[in-house]
Amino acid sequence: METVRVEHVDYTYRTKYQSVEALKDVSCSFEDGAMYAIVGKSGSGKSTLLSLLAGLDLPSGGSIYVEGADLKNMDRDSYRRDTASVVYQAFHLFPLLTAQENVMYPMELKGVKRKQAAKRAKELLLQVGLPETICRQFPKMMSGGEQQRVAIARALAVDGKILLADEPTGNLDSENERRIVEILYKIAHEAGYTVIVITHNEKVAEAADHRYQMEDGRLSVL
Questions:
Q1: Strand, coil or helix: what is 56?
Q2: Cβ neighbours of residue 36 closer than 8 Å, sequence gap 6 or more
Q3: What's the chain's average pLDDT?
Q4: Cβ(52)–Cβ(60) under 8 Å?
Q5: Helix (H) or strand (E) holding 74
Q6: pLDDT tier, 90 (very low <50, low <70, confident <90, very high otherwise)
Q7: What confidence tens digit (pLDDT) does each residue in 22-41 have?
Q8: Rounded distance, CA 37 to CA 202, Å?
Q9: How far apart are CA 182 and CA 26, in angstroms?
Q10: How many CB atoms sit inside 10 A of residue 191's CB?
């Protein structure tokens, strides 16, 4: 089933001195239960598209529909809290929270009781292949691969069925890259998520069910 539809989207960055067209008439769609890769060089517009899909900004033109509703008419804070989550290259874990507390955070924002959130956080950490002992560890005590898996578990805690990943393997070695790609693929195929990955890594892109190419702000199917 179609989860996200992008229709003729443009996006222009404007400063006091210039305007830059980052996206030009972009149209595409994403379904649940599948993993998508958007590839392209730095500056091609792929991260801009991801930020729009995450509701961090609105298109200059065109529309993005999520389950039939136009994103511009939605409460975007609620959208990010309840529907879409983002995993970044730099992990962005809270350094003073344990792994378990990091995963609990989005659940507690939604009003889930602490005991219930703690139980669910432990389950999600196990789901992404981490040992129970990591629950009490702080980010500085973890490897890069472990931190990224905690970040994915935190994204799953949103329980919104749209997972966006911006260069999720960019800071990882080849073994951890493989593990992260496997986790993202399983999230799509076994948990029914719409998984959209921004990457310049061909190995990561090849693992996706569908691939798009972004070049000079325009999107095409690979």
A1: coil
A2: 30, 194, 195, 196, 197, 208, 209, 210, 211, 212
A3: 94
A4: no
A5: none
A6: confident
A7: 999 999 999 999 999 999 99
A8: 10
A9: 28
A10: 15
Q: Within a 10 A sphere around the Cβ of 110, how many other Cβ atoms? A: 13
Rounded-to-10 torsion of CA 69, 70, 74, 78: 70
User: Which candidate, 158, 195, 207, places its Cα nearest to that of 32?
Assistant: 195
Among 33, 81, 29, CA closest to 55: 81
Q: Which residue pairs from 13-21 have beta carbons closer than 8 angstroms and sit at least 24 positions apart in sequence?
A: 21/217
Amino acid at 155: A
Structure tokens at 194: 């719409």
Read off the amino acid at residue 21: E
CB-based contact 176:170 (threshold 8 Å): no
Could you count the other beta carbons within 10 Å of the beta carbon of residue 221? Answer: 8
Long-range contacts of 171-177 (CB under 8 A, 24+ apart): 171/89, 171/90, 171/91, 171/144, 172/144, 172/145, 172/148, 173/144, 173/145, 175/145, 176/143, 176/144, 176/145, 176/148, 177/201, 177/203, 177/204
Tokens 């890594």, residue? 201
The pLDDT tens digits for 68-85 are 999 999 999 999 999 999
Structure tokens at 111: 């009003």
Report which residue type is found at 37: A
